[in-house]
């Protein structure tokens, strides 16, 4: 995919509405220790959003039709997929991905890796929503505080605060008032964070969705169903957004 292109002239009429979700799929391994990408695909169908940011996608693992899990789940749920691998192996790769039902204008893959730690990254895509460009970023930050400090700082350097933007993912931030959290809130405003981890007793707010501007957020909630409670160790977060066209 190419780098993000220049904004096209807006041709639609507002408001600009988008449904989004963020979901750490845990490589499609469920709490019952079964590898069932078809179950994960059912959760994606349940979410039924325009865009889904995925973390822990393992394309080294095959699916029922013999394809890799990202290809399989995207096809099953009716999405186009944008891979954002961070770990590369001979038989596939592992990392983030973006699923979309909207046209893609451009893609940038951002390396957020810290030496000596698991490679990390982000997928930064520009999508067309009824003739208006929207920036969507999905990421999965590191387990150590110093990693996250670097990764948040790097994201803030790269992100261009356009009129319409979504930043989402598994931020691995356990403390609500941590420095990485405050850095993000200073830039994008305070967000509503759901308790999503672990699925059997959600206590920790690890999976976040930031909307720019903040006032565009209409609804946000955890997606709790029979399948989503067991398909991963994280619950998905789902949001509805409506931007006013000025």
Describe this structure in words.
With 246 residues, the chain is an alpha+beta fold. It has one domain: Deoxyribonuclease I, Chain A (4-Layer Sandwich), CATH 3.60.10.10. It is 20% helix and 35% strand. It has five helices and eleven strands; from the N terminus they run E-H-E-H-E-E-E-E-E-H-E-H-E-E-H-E. The protein has helices at 37-47, 69-77, 145-158, 179-188, 228-231; strands at 16-24, 51-58, 80-89, 92-100, 104-111, 121-129, 132-140, 165-170, 207-212, 217-222, 237-243. The strands form two sheets. A six-stranded mixed sheet has the order 3-4-2-1-11-10, covered by helices on one side. A five-stranded mixed sheet has the order 5-6-7-8-9, with no helix packed on it. Strand 3 (80-89) and strand 4 form a beta hairpin. It is globular.
